[in-house]
Amino acid sequence: MNDLEPTPPINTISAGDPLAACSWTEGGSSLIFQSCKACQHHWYFQRNFCPACGQTEPIQSVSGGTGIVHASTLLQRAPNDEFRAIAPYCIVLVDVLEGFRVMGHGDAKLFIGDSVRCEVRQIAGRSLPFFTRNSS
Amino acid sequence: MSFVIGSGLTAFGRHADLTTLDLMSRATDLALTDAGLERGDIDGLVCGYSTTLPHLMLSTVFAEHYGLSPNYAHAVQLGGATGFALVMLAHHLISSGAAKRVLVVAGENRMSGQSRDSAIQVLAQVGHPIYEVPLGPTIPAYYGLVASRYMYEFGNTEVDFAELAVLMRRNAGRHEGAHFRKTISVDDVMASRAISTPLKMLDCCSVSDGGCAFVISAKPEGPNPVRISGAAQRHNAQHVSASLSLTDCHAGECANQALAMAGRSLHDIEYAAIYDSFTITLTMLLEEIGLAPRGRAGQLARDGHFDVDGVVPLNLHGGLLSYGHCGVAGAMAHLAETHLQMTGRAGTRQAKQAGVSLLHGDGGVLSSHVSLVMEKL
Fold first, then answer.
1. Is residue A127 located within the same domain as residue A70?
2. What residues of B are in the A interface, CB distance below 8 Å?
3. At residue A13, does pLDDT exceed 80?
4. Taking the CB of residue B224, how many other CB atoms lie within 10 A of it?
5. How many Å lie between the alpha carbon of A101 and the closest alpha carbon of chain B?
6. Which candidate in B197, B275, B290, B376 could, as Cys together with B355 as Cys, close a disulfide (CB 3.0–4.6 Å)?
7. Phi and psi dihedrals of B229, rounded to 5?
């Protein structure tokens, strides 16, 4: 992330915090990311070290969920029955303000460059990140 | 130093009665005949993988089945980049002295050996198992995302993409082994069924059955040797969410490295064999490598630049988009056609000049790249 950009407030998760278990990937309602205090790198896919510098104590945080649409596609030909039931649906890549990229579902009318925010919705029987246009 | 001395390519399409091992065997028969060799002349074996025959040791399963006793055997998995990565591996094995004649082989009954849903789901697993696959994307969706961004940055249109599908189909019409030979128009592509915007059915390669094999040798032996003069790889983040850029996949750097190894530049290239899983794939690779200016691959195709009698003939067998795609052997078909073109044996498809050729394959969602340069002796 560029040093000149304002850094949004980050909700850091401390050990034992109930937020730690609430990532959408585990049925929760948060978008979680990690960052490195040594090199300031931010990333999305969880691991117990920094993929940029190897530092072993990454900080885990909850994202505010706002960002900009980087790419989008309206998927018509779904991979299985669960998703055929909701097709067509929009898949987006969003550059989240805290400095990482997320794949999610989104409103069919989203365009590249749109400002969006994330909420976790029940889609095809599971909790998934869903992006809608940010009205504010 | 290494040489492609034989190639064998089966027809692609439906081979309902043939297994992975049958298709690998047929392609090997053809490649050995082309090289004027027999089984016992082979001392190295490298192969790809098959989604219909998943196995920990496919190379030695095939060696046993076909009756080979190689000193070196190795199966490689790099998605669509596997075929050219195998050729690069054979080149290095020979250069290092580990083997003298390496068989490169792949085959798969990807169309007949499983349901269409199964094929689509297996392939979608190149996505991240926690952060991507649960969202219900498909390979065309990953490429649809890339295409949306590419169009946004460089102004390519869906009609521009369609021009490349039309070109591949026209080429396939001259090859009796191609899966799809019936001529199509830009309107046909535009009217074809929506898959994942902006990609439509005719922007996507098929799922086919088929096989392909080469013999790579330390010596320029037999009637049809061509030299491998450059080979390079480049690998980016595996997953599209982790990719640093959707519009710069480092294919250009990979190709430049292979060209530098060969002491060549893009201006020397007389024939191009470029991976074309989707029209966006072919567009992006042509433009990033520099065979077309950014945003203009479709326009050049429309103007005949890549035709059999054009400035740089491209995928004259019809590519993955129309010759067909059976997995690892799909991209290898590009090299089999290049070998025929370079040795003047492509019949009605023959380009006037194909002495110096550039080949490029990608795997994943433009995440793994292999470039090869081949030269006529």
1. yes
2. 117, 120-121, 124, 128, 130-132, 134-138, 140-141, 144-149, 152, 193-199, 239-242, 246
3. no
4. 21
5. 6
6. B376
7. -110, -10
Do residues A61 and A55 touch, judged by C-beta distance below 8 A? no
* Parent domain of A105: 66-133
**The domain boundary residue, chosen from A26, A43, A62:** A62
Which distant-in-sequence residues (6+ apart) come within 8 Å of B366 by Cβ? B146, B236, B243, B249, B251, B281, B284
Q: What would the 3-class secondary structure string for chain A be?
A: CCCCCCCCCCEECCCCCHHHHCEHHHCCCECEEEECCCCCCEECCCCCCCCCCCCCCCEEEECCCEEEEEEEEEECCCCCHHHHCCCCEEEEEEEECCCEEEEEEECCCCCCCCEEEEEEEEECCEEEEEEEECCC
What pLDDT is recorded for position A17?
A: 54
Residue A15 has pLDDT above 60, yes or no: no
Residue A79, min C-alpha distance to chain B (Å): 6
pLDDT band at B87 (very low <50, low <70, confident <90, very high): very high
Structural domain includes residue A79: yes
Could you give the number of structural domains in chain B?
1
Quote ipTM for the complex: 0.93
